[in-house]
Amino acid sequence: MNDSKLKMNSIKLEEESDDEMPVLERMDYCFEYPNEIKLEEPDIDLECFPAQPPLQNEYVQELLKNDCYKQELLVPKEEEPDDHQNFRQLDPSDDGSFSDSKRNSQVYRKCQVCNRLMSIELMTKTELNDSKLVLLVGSILGGSMMFKEAKLLISEPVINACHAHFSDALDKIFVYFGIGNNGQMQDCSDATISEVIKLTARLSPSPISIEEFYYLLSNFTQKLRPLHNTVLETKERISDRLPANNNQGIYGLPPPPPRVRSYNKKCTVCHEAPGKDKIMTTRSRDKQLVLFVGLVLGVQKSIIEAQKLCSKSELIFCKTHLKDAVVDILKFLEIEHIHHMRLCSADKKEKLMAAVHFFNPGTTFADFVRVVNDTNRRLTFI
Question: What is a single Pfam family found in this protein's UniProt entry (predicted)?
């Protein structure tokens, strides 16, 4: 019994001492360190792992034993120039064989005069100031280029243009001079030459005399001779190749009948399609006002129906309806001529202006007389 009591007292003392111990000291006291780490190297069987790759030099020497690697490493590839037109990078799946479509592919460039993509076979590249000057002067005289555009192009180091523009520029200069060829330059008037010389002086940085311009045109004509075979064909030249007998169609069949365009616009008043010559389209508020008032006074349309037509911005109607509207207005006023409208009775004038103000409230009687007179005068030319 005594031993058991002693054990119980010792346990209570330990618990009381644990409660009084600080937290950090209690953690150190309760912590048990693990076993010491052994630093001995483990026994590893190297045969279980693959051998390391050889050094780079040894690896290259092994590859050189093979012919394909030897050719790839030792034989240098031919370097192709950057501006080569037909240069293309082959895909890994490409066998390097060019088809006919690839071999015959054309290269296109943009013409700096007409801004169209053309084949290089139909274009000329010039770096000479004389050729550029003749090209731009002829383009300005022909109306195909503005002076501001030509002023920007003359400063370009290179101009790419169609062959047709060079020959057309020379023709326009000859037409402006009133001559047919370069040999008749002495026969043209001084006024036309002075105008062209002023134009060249505004384009070129250095002034050019008349003799220099003569030499410039003659030299340009000699350079242009080889290009006449590749000038773009016009419609007249293509039509000359057609057969003389145009009465037969393709493969000897008779030609198709001429196509007749149908004019299916319908009148908004009578809902009929009389034809192109008998119908008119107008957005004029004056003509619409005369038409609406005439339809109401002639009892052809009610005010509600005329108001629906008045809501449309564009009106399509027969020409006879507008003529009948003027006649109905005169019949309502019981007069024969338009210049008698000011002499009508006050009752008729009041009823007329009531119909006019229904469609256009701001119109006075004098304004309506003027509108009717102008409409009747224009009807004679319709």
Answer: Lin-15B
